[in-house]
Amino acid sequence: MERELAQLSFAMDDLRLFLDTHPCDKAALAAHEEVRARRGIAVKQYERLIGPVNFYDAGGTCTWNWTCAPWPWETEDENDVEL
């Protein structure tokens, strides 16, 4: 699961950099929208199963939940669930 999320995030970053220099490329814009949607689904699944993806989404009403989820190296293989 972490691997797919990292791959989708990388693809979004790569497309963003490409779009910085090719802002009217319709294929790149479509690819960015597709990857953004897929990443959104992956983020929701990750947060439901493991915890927040980044500290901007952390919170909690009783405790600070950013540190409650396992670190990536603690679940590297055991939680690698197909999305």
Question: What is this structure's SSE topology?
Answer:
Layout lengths: L1 H20 L4 H24 L34
Helix pairs in contact: 1-2
Task: Briefly say what this structure is.
This is Protein CotJB domain-containing protein. With 83 residues, the chain is mainly alpha-helical. It has helices spanning 2-21, 26-49.
Could you walk me through the main structural features you see in this protein, from its secondary elements to its overall organization?
- By secondary structure, this protein is an all-alpha fold.
- It has one domain (2-74): Helix Hairpins (Orthogonal Bundle).
- It is built from two helices and no strands.
- It has helices at residues 2-21, 26-49.
- It is elongated and about 40 Å long.
- InterPro entries: CotJB_dom (IPR024207).
- Residues 3-74 form the Protein CotJB domain.
- Pfam families: CotJB (PF12652).
- This is Protein CotJB domain-containing protein.
Radius of gyration: 15 Å
Poorly predicted tracts of residues: none
Q: How can the largest sheet be summarized? A: none
- Strand content is under 5%
- In the CATH hierarchy, the third-tier topology is known as Helix Hairpins
Feature tags:
83 residues; mainly alpha; single chain; Helix Hairpins; Protein CotJB domain-containing protein; 2 helices; CotJB_dom
